Amino acid sequence: MKLEILTKSENFTVQKDIISKIKDLINFKNLEPGDKLPSERMLSEKFEVSRSNVREAIQKLEFYGLLKSIPQSGTFVANIGVIAMNGMIDDILRLDDPDFKSLVETRILLELKTARLAALRRTEEDLSNMKNALVAYEEKVINGEDAVQEDLLFHLAIAKASGNSTMNTFMLIITPEIITNFEKYHVCDKGLAQRGILEHNAIFDAIVNQDAQLAKQKMKEHFKELYQYCYNLG
Predict the structure, then answer these.
(1) Angle of helix 100-121 versus helix 148-161 axis, rounded to 10
(2) Residues 122, 127, 132, CA angle at the centre, nearest 5°?
(3) Minimal CB count within 10 Å: which of 89, 101, 130, 203?
(4) What is the pTM of this model?
(5) pLDDT digits (tens, 9 = 90+) for 188-209
């Protein structure tokens, strides 16, 4: 799994501004379900922003089911009434850029579930992906290098092995911000990386042995420091 696609940081304010302008455009032109939006190039010129910013805003609206992009054809208004669409876009615009603490808290809750499900559902391919991530993490730690991305790749491999596409998607959504802010907030001491090797292997062994309860328990132990951070126990 390539991580580069996950580490794009987005300009939250610009994106919200573009989404607001797309909403105004749909209303001004009285676009109905199935109607086509102007091209990304035209929108970027009209809104005076980059095409990549427009693309990210469209992808966000697609994620919420408000737009639908068809390869080689363009982007279309989804089959939803204008009143409902305006209400949903207003809700999206009211969403705050998630703070690091809430992202980590969400990640902990997700990971306890994915570890348990991965133990029950993992395939040989899943185990191979986890093992590769484990080896890469160990090599970085032993060499004294930053292993944040390798750490997260291991956890993403577990999420994929859970067989729950929604949980996997949520992990992919929150991971970029965690990577971006991990060092900034110094949640985990670098000295914990060495212990991380042992903890990762314990989680992996439980998943290999399809011991769902142990996998969940070992994941919980792995997140002890993050628990203390999130719940002010430390």
Answers:
(1) 50
(2) 150
(3) 101
(4) 0.62
(5) 555 677 888 999 999 999 999 9
